[in-house]
Amino acid sequence: MIPLPYYASTLNQMRGHKIPQSDINFSSEVYYYIWRSLYQRFVSKFDLGVPDHWDKDIYTFTVLAMGFVGVFDTNKYALSIEDRFGIIPAPATLSGIGVQMQPTKIRTANPYFTMPESEVIYEGAGLIKITGDYRGILDIVDFYAERLALLVASIDQSIINSKYAYIVGANSEAGAATLKAIFDARNSGKPLIVFDKDKLKKKDAIDKTSPLTNEEPFNFIDLDVGRNYITDKLIQDYRSIMNQFDTEIGIANIQYEKKERLVTNEIESNNVESVARFNYFLDHLQLSIEKTIEVFPELEGQLYAKATVYDTGQTGAKEAKGGDSDVIEANGSRTSRLRNIFKR
Description:
This protein is of the alpha+beta class. It has two domains: about 1-65 and about 130-155 and about 230-344, no CATH class; about 165-220, no CATH class. The protein has helices at about 10-15, 30-45, 55-65, 140-160, 175-185, 195-205, 225-230, 230-250, 265-295, and strands at about 45-50, 70-75, 85-90, 95, 105, 120, 125-130, 165-170, 220, 305, 330. Helix 8 (about 230-250) packs across helix 9. It is elongated, with a radius of gyration of 30 Å.
């Protein structure tokens, strides 16, 4: 089980639309390991600043994975001093239809306070979102996690297959039992395995009159492991899918699987592609943070979103704080985009 705050909507979003849902042929443990790895990889792109009294992990998961989070002043709903928690984020439900068909109201349910009615978005409450359709990145993570989990299963099977160069058949039950013992001994690491071939023939001769009893006790098919070895190709495919995921979430990468030489234009084209969707995510975060700060001015300077553009050179990942940085930044107001991404 993933140790994340899953809500019913997230579970439905991940599994409710799969056709067929029963077509799963990979380990759940492997899938969840990869899922968490990809989710954390995506989250690492963002540095979300929050007030000290906010739970940053819950806020991050809610706004990025679920797609949006409400921001409420709980002091308005408090029945006593003990019920005052200040301005906090919370998973919320949207309602209402505006003139442009947009949601107009927002509400949350919490055992520590009770909202008498829904608040008008960006008037009585804030709303921070990562996409225009109010969905998060669970579909992206799940899409690639499934494919990588399938590849891991294939890689494991390929490694096992590469240990055995033959398919072996036995001519008798005694031969089959001996064969199993040989394979057990081989897998345990014994360097030398000896069996009595003549004894097997004599036992067969007593039980059978078939000509097979006078032949070799085992038959085999050579699988030609060297020619059919595909583990390296599967590992390359794994890396290729990881590159596709990185491109989706805004991590620049190199098309290492290309056989010919890469030219500068190809690398820059891939970098542009890698920031295209990520820029969309950041735009919505920035704009919604701006509007939320207009509702709650006291969040100015505390609530912000920054994103690191990774430097693939010798200096590693860079995180600059402003000016001519390679970092896209939002601190209540949007700044210019990608000024020097390609000034390497």
